[in-house]
User: What shape does this take?
Amino acid sequence: VIALLIVILTNNQTVSANASNPSVELYKLFAHMQLADDKQYRCLVLLWHKESRWSATADNPKSSAYGIPQLLKMTERDPYKQILLGLKYIKHRHKTPCLALEHHKKGWY
Assistant: This one.
């Protein structure tokens, strides 16, 4: 069902809210489906926008942080797996994306 929804959205080009990179909208849709909570999703969108602008190839030259969630020592290149790993990290470290976003005020999460 998820793959079908993504294919439909892509074929109808309704994900053009980010015209420069429509993949970002697909990444956000995938993350939203994983969370199933609108408030937590909004916090995640803000958090990962600050971290990587939702770029699966974002690379921090000052550390080993990489990918959408900017996890240290990230070797995963698949953006959807990056999202899953990022959500797992948030759940383990902060419980929720909103708590992670609050912690990000220190400059990291």
The CA atoms of residues 4 and 99 lie 32 Å apart.
